[in-house]
Amino acid sequence: MCYVFRSMASKAPKPRQPVRGSRTGRPIMALLDLLGRRWTLRVLWELRDAPATFRELRERCDDVSPTVLNQRLGELREVGIVELSGEGYGLTARGTTLLEALLPLDAWARAWARSFAPAD
Amino acid sequence: MCYVFRSMASKAPKPRQPVRGSRTGRPIMALLDLLGRRWTLRVLWELRDAPATFRELRERCDDVSPTVLNQRLGELREVGIVELSGEGYGLTARGTTLLEALLPLDAWARAWARSFAPAD
DNA sequence: CTTCGTTGCTACGGAATGTGTAGCAATGGT
DNA sequence: ACCATTGCTACACATTCCGTAGCAACGAAG
């Protein structure tokens, strides 16, 4: 790796703070804002099994542009969902629990697909 | 209401089709693309309890611009998650199951918030 | 029929966000 | 000294989103 840690611009939506499209500060609103940004869900998904280096993660996400990837990783790190360690980027303990809350999506998506093309 | 149904431009990511950032056609990828678009998660969330008219839904979503709202509703309708009835816009049966898969997010968000401001 | 209020929805210009390529500085190995 | 890899940035272009204004279709009331 390279570079030491560098504090970021603090752009990630956080609970108890007003976010895009909601000034109430309700935690769920911050979360929806965060997860609703492009590539965020995908990044979390690609980290579900194992950590990955920046470049490896980029490949897993179909070569997303490093600009956005870095932006998303910054946001996710800022709120304690993702961390950078010697193994590369990976989910924190909290991040793992979030992903568990998202896991049912895969099963749902399969059932959803069946309704588009019955044969499976 | 007004206007009869009008077939749309088919821009929604569907399972078994290549989507933005993934040509595999895996259902979960289509879903992540769909849900990762701005306001999609929020719209689903605001419909969790009861249907709403276009204008009412817009207010619930902090006055999101009608352009995007209509775009999102079109996508969600196209894939059978949302429908427009006499009651206004509401979740379909399938949409309801998707939302159930997302409900744990609220609980997670609350716990998340606690780690930012211990007192609650 | 006319007026009024509400419906879903669109046009359009400007602002924000995302994309793609190239490449830099730091680190570790040989 | 080299070389490969790391995380990450610069910059110009494209897409998406936003905010305001307003249209056409319907229902109810006069």
Description:
The structure is a homodimer of 120-residue chains. Chain A is mainly alpha-helical and 120 residues long. In chain A, 48% of the residues lie in helices and 7% in strands. Chain A contains 6 helices and 2 strands. Chain A has helices at residues 27-35, 40-46, 54-60, 66-78, 93-102, 104-114, and strands at residues 82-85, 88-91. A two-stranded antiparallel sheet of chain A has the order 1-2. The relative contact order of chain A is 0.14. The structure holds a DNA duplex (30 and 30 nucleotides).
Summarize this entry quickly.
The structure is a homodimer of 120-residue chains. With 120 residues, chain A is mainly alpha-helical.
List the helices and strands and how they pair.
The structure is a homodimer of 120-residue chains.
Chain A: H1 27-35, H2 40-46, H3 54-60, H4 66-78, E1 82-85, E2 88-91, H5 93-102, H6 104-114
Antiparallel strand pairs in A: 1-2
Chain B binds a DNA duplex (30 and 30 nucleotides) through helix 4.
